[in-house]
Each structure stands twice: as C-alpha cells, then as structure tokens.
C-alpha cells in the first residue's frame, strides 16, 4: 500500500470512528403519490395520528404499505468448479423492493441486482413482471427498476429528516424466502456511517433494531403512519469476534428520493463525488490532534474521501478539504452542497471554495 493509500485509510478510520461508524457491515441481499404539479417525487403527509393502542399503528401501517412491497428475484451467471475446468451455469438470488410509482418504478438495493442477467418483480397479490434496471448507485446501495405495468399499488416516501431516535418503525421484506415478513423495532440512531467492503462506505444511515435478515435487502423501513422512511440495506453481524444483535441499517428516505429522481430523469445520480459530513468542533479537534491538520473555519463540509473519476476528483478536491462555498452560496452542511449540485444539474459547472491547510482555493467541477 502506497503512502497515499495509508493516509486515506487513516483519515477514513479516524473520521468514521468519530461519526459513530462501524466497519464490516454485511449487505443483506438474498408510490410516491403525485402532487398537484404531477411530480411523483414529493414527500406526502398523512392524516392518521400514531395509534395509542399497542399494535394498532403497526397493523394499519402494514395494511397501507404492504401491497407495494415486492419480492425481487434475480438470476446471475455462475460457474461450478469441476476437476479440470469451470462449468457455466446460473444462480438465483432473492431480495425485496418497494413500488414508488404506480407506473411501475421499483426501488431496491444495488447489491440485490448487481450483475443480474434477469430480474423479476413479484407482488403480494400474486402478479409478477419481468423488470429492467433503470439505474443503480453502489455509493448509496440503491437501484431503480421498471416494470411494464400501470395502476400499481405505490408506497409513499416520507421525510427521514423528521425521524427521531426511539420512534417505532416496521421492516417489511422477504427474509430467507419467507414472503412478506413484518418485524418491528425502533429508530436506534441516525446519521450512521458503515464500511461495507470494497473501499465503500455508506453514509447518513438510519440504524434500527427491527430484525433485518438476508432477503430483506431493498425492502422498506416504515413508520407507524405507513410512510417509507428508509430502504433496508445492511446488518452488523459480528463486531471484533462477538455476535451482534439488533444492529440493522437503512438508507434514509430523503436520500432514496433524490437518487430515484435522478436515476429516472438522467439515468444516474447527480453526484459531486464527495464523501464527507458537516464540519463540527469535534471534527476540527480530531483533525488537529490526530492528523496534525489545521482547519481555520467552523462551518462547511469536511471531505474525508473523493470518488475516483468523479466531478470532485476532476476538480482537484482532496480528503480533509473543507468546502465552504458552492454555486456562490455558503455551505453550512452536506445538504447545502448536495442542493448546489442538484441546482446546477448534469453537464453544468459548479464553482466551489475550499479551505485546504489554511488556504482558500477556488475549484470548478464539471457535473
């Protein structure tokens, strides 16, 4: 490993620990209602209050969202080793998904459909359809599928920014092939960062103790009002040799909404390529004490990695830069940086101001 790689690993390890992250998480593979303007990608509210009676809220929520939860069956090319050569064949995989638009768009995990040679989507009412992959994003572990159907039952994506620790939630999916299984739990924590191997980290995840098992991947995490607040993606099974329990993670609905919108409209997410988080006093202290870096600002986005080949990479952004302006506006946190990239749109240039080792630099990314 060259010195640059060692530095990258050190930065990611230190920052991930600071963010409350976990290493070695295992990916668990196996409708938006339209607003008056016609957009299927606006979060909607519901009129139901949370039920007071034990279990009533969960029952109503499952009744509301259950018909939109699907089983995702995939076929992949596989090879079986024989004495002298490998024999080509096919293996089957199973995951979950949720219909987010009545016209046939389905949200699931990227790892569920990765390298798939065929995909089928099966509804709770017995209908099934061949599906095509519209687009996938390994950096959020999300994928959008499309089926040729209309008038499908569609779930509503809620606002994950409004989630609270301790709030009850429901996970729905197909663990171990047990179709349309429901488990309950609470929001255990927010804004978690986990390592899933291959040099990838998943950011800003929702942590829950609702049981998530192989086959649950891509299924919804639902609040008691029947709104999807996350897409189940991973579980932490072993920590330093000890079996872990009740450590599941979901991609937040706000992130899923944005990725789905971009994939459907542009075929890919609009991504700057910055992996980071909102700068805090704790970040500054760790950077100075553990890494020997000086950060003379108290607001911005602290970069701890840059996706290779991304617009940010091409612009020259480096780990431990702090992005303080983008598109002519101050950047207070990650949401501001994402909004600036989305506002600029694909094919546009985004001018950013970054602070690097005490100096301010102007960098331009081509989205």
In words, what does this structure look like?
With 367 residues, the chain is an alpha+beta fold. The chain is 19% helix and 40% strand. It has 7 helices and 22 strands. It has helices at residues 3-18, 56-65, 110-113, 253-266, 281-290, 311-315, 334-344; strands at 26-27, 69-81, 86-101, 105-108, 116-122, 128-137, 142-147, 156-157, 168-173, 181-197, 200-208, 220-223, 227-235, 238-239, 242-243, 248-252, 274-278, 301-306, 322-326, 329-330, 349-356, 359-366. A 6-stranded antiparallel barrel has the order 9-10-11-16-13-12. It has a 6-stranded antiparallel barrel with strand order 2-3-4-7-6-5. Strands 17, 18, 19, 20, 21 and 22 form a 6-stranded antiparallel β-sheet that branches. The longest helix is centred in the first third of the chain and has 16 residues, at 3-18. Mean pLDDT is 82; it is low at 1-6, 17-21 and 30-54.
């Amino acid at each position: 490993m060259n010195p640059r790689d060692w530095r990258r690993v050190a930065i990611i390890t230190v920052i991930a620990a600071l963010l409350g992250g976990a290493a070695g998480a295992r990916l668990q593979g196996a409708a938006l209602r339209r607003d008056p303007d016609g957009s299927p990608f606006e979060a909607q509210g519901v009129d139901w209050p949370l039920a007071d009676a034990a279990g009533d809220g969960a029952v109503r929520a499952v009744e509301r969202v259950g018909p939109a939860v699907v089983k995702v069956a995939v076929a992949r090319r596989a090879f079986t080793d024989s004495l002298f050569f490998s024999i080509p064949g096919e293996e089957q995989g199973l995951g979950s998904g949720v219909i987010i638009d009545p016209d046939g768009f389905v949200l699931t995990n990227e790892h569920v459909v990765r390298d798939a040679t065929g995909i089928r989507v099966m509804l709770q009412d017995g209908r099934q359809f061949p599906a095509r992959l519209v687009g996938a994003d390994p950096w959020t572990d999300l994928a959008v599928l499309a089926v040729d159907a209309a008038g499908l039952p569609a779930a509503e994506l809620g606002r994950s920014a409004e989630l609270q620790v301790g709030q009850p939630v429901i996970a729905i999916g197909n663990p171990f092939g047990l179709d349309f299984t429901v488990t309950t739990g609470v929001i255990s924590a927010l804004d978690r960062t986990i390592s899933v191997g291959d040099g990838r980290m998943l950011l800003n995840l929702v942590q829950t103790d609702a049981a998530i098992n192989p086959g649950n991947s891509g299924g919804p995490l639902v609040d008691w009002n029947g709104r999807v607040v996350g897409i189940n993606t991973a579980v932490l099974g072993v920590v330093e040799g000890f079996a872990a329990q009740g450590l599941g993670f979901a991609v937040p609905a706000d992130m899923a909404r944005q990725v789905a919108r971009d994939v459907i409209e542009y075929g890919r997410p609009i991504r700057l390529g910055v992996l980071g988080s909102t700068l805090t006093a704790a970040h500054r202290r760790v950077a100075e004490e553990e890494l020997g870096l000086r950060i003379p600002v108290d607001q911005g986005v602290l970069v701890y990695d840059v996706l290779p080949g991304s617009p940010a990479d091409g612009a020259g952004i480096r780990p431990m830069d702090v992005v303080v302006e983008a598109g002519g506006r101050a950047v207070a946190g990650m949401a501001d940086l994402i909004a600036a990239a989305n506002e600029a749109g694909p094919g546009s240039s985004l001018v950013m101001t970054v602070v690097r080792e005490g100096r301010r630099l102007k960098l331009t990314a081509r989205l």
